[in-house]
Amino acid sequence: MQIDNIKFNKHPLFLAPMEDVTDPAFRLLCKGFGADMVYSEFISADALIRDIQRTKEKLTIHEEERPVVIQLYGREPEPIAEAAKRAEEANPDIIDLNFGCPVKKVAGKGGGAGLLKDVPKLLEIVKAVVKAVNKPVTVKTRLGWDENSKIITTLAEQIQDCGAKALAIHGRTRSQMYTGEADWTLIGEVKANPRIKIPIIGNGDVTTPERAKECFEIYGVDAVMIGRGSIGQPWIFEDIKYYLETGKKIDKKPFEFYLNILKQQVENNVKWLDERRGITHSRRHIAASPLFKGIDNFKQTKIAMLKAETKEELFKIMDSIKENFDV
To answer: d(Cα 242, Cα 250) in Å, to the nearest integer?
Structure first.
């Protein structure tokens, strides 16, 4: 599979863009476990051209995480095109356009998935960004606004015709938000369309190696994108790759191995930001890790983790779990 001049091995796995999740620290961890391409957090085009410092920080890229994608969202062609030029200066491998974010503060104001209600403007944005930058431009979107407007099969052709080099599709409508199950049937239809020549990337509810294999085999997608399934377990990429290559589940490592990976995520965020912001940024993702699923009476420990204000305090709580965990 190839996006513009970027080549991937068979069955590539991509880390989905997620706000407050796919920061450089997390991206590097996922890359280390085999993610073939990683995406930045959502970056507001309007905030970027206003030089908002927190937004500019999201442009941080490390050579070790390549190929890496910077994703932008907005609601008007000119500001997004200008923001794309600024994003290009950070030297990502790809610039991606977000037409899938369902949250009210984005979609409700006409950005993200909100543009599924204004297809002419969505296509105008794609054309404007393709014209504005030299980097390949890709798109991530959803099936449609709601159950009665699943437009992706037609929209995919239109996006391709505007110059996008790849299309990632989340198998839900905007109205579904993140509820229910992702529907991959329309993703499969897009991929099977003989007019579609660009790579199609499937996204939604890939949380196990078995499901990743099904998505490649049943729907024929060129790549699978993993989002929430990676939160608190960046090693999911290694687990899936091993299964795709061997047909077997990877041998589980000791509990302490995975705990140390989560500690490394915290360390990286503290280094990237500072201790206060690094801990605040990390703790809810650490507390949500599937690593702790099934541990008896974990609720109070989780609350303590969410309240931790220093690295020492958070690590002490994590070590107490290790001491009481039956490995």
So the answer is: 6
